[in-house]
Amino acid sequence: MNPLITDFNTETTRTPVIVALDFANEQDTLAFVRRLDPSLCCLKIGKELFTATGRSLVEKLIHQGFQIFLDLKYHDIPNTVAQACKAAADIGVWMVDMHVSGGRRMMEAAAEAVANHAQKPLLIGVTVLTSMEQSDLKEIGIDIPVEDLVVRWAELAKHSGLDGVVCSAHEAAPLRRTLGEDFVLVTPGIRLNVAANNDDQRRIMTPAEALAAGSTYLVMGRPVTLATDPVAVLREVNAAVNGL
Ligand code: C5P
Question: Residue 64 burial by CB count (10 A; 0-12/13-18/19+): exposed, middle or buried?
Answer without folding.
Answer: middle
